[in-house]
Each structure stands twice: as structure tokens, then as C-alpha cells.
Amino acid sequence: MTFSHPFMLTGIDGVQPAGTYTVETDEELVDGLSFPVYRRVATVILLPVRAGGTTLAQAATIDPLDLERAEQADAATP
Q1: Which secondary structure element, helix H or strand E, spans residue 74, and what is its range?
Q2: What's the whole-model pTM score?
Q3: Superkingdom of the source (predicted)?
Q4: Cα separation, 21 vs 37, whole angstroms
């Protein structure tokens, strides 16, 4: 996912810089149905570590609706 402008997400400290982010969605198969149905278990965004950190990225669990709102706000910003 690419953001053209800095953005914020609930549960993540501070403003995240514009850029491209990896977003992963974990799902599990719902048993007992005659056709495959998956339920979202978690949505995770990989955030770059600030200068001076010892790792390359940090994974943060986020609300997919909050991510959608941030994406819509980014698209609406001139």
C-alpha cells in the first residue's frame, strides 16, 4: 500500500511518513460449511524503524477499517 502523504493509524504512536508499506492479512478457514469461507484474524502493517533502530521494520496489528479511512484521507488530500 502506498501513501502519498504522512498518515496516522489508531494504536501506532506518531505520524508515519509517506511511502510504500507492506500490509498482511491473516485469515482462517471457517469449518462446517459446504464451501470455503475465510474469516479475517488480523491485519498487520510493516513500519520502518526510526533512525538509530537495530531492526529494519516493525510489525503492528491494525484495524482494517482504520487503514481504509487513512487510505481514503490520503487519496482526498491534494
Answers
A1: helix 64-76
A2: 0.78
A3: Bacteria
A4: 27
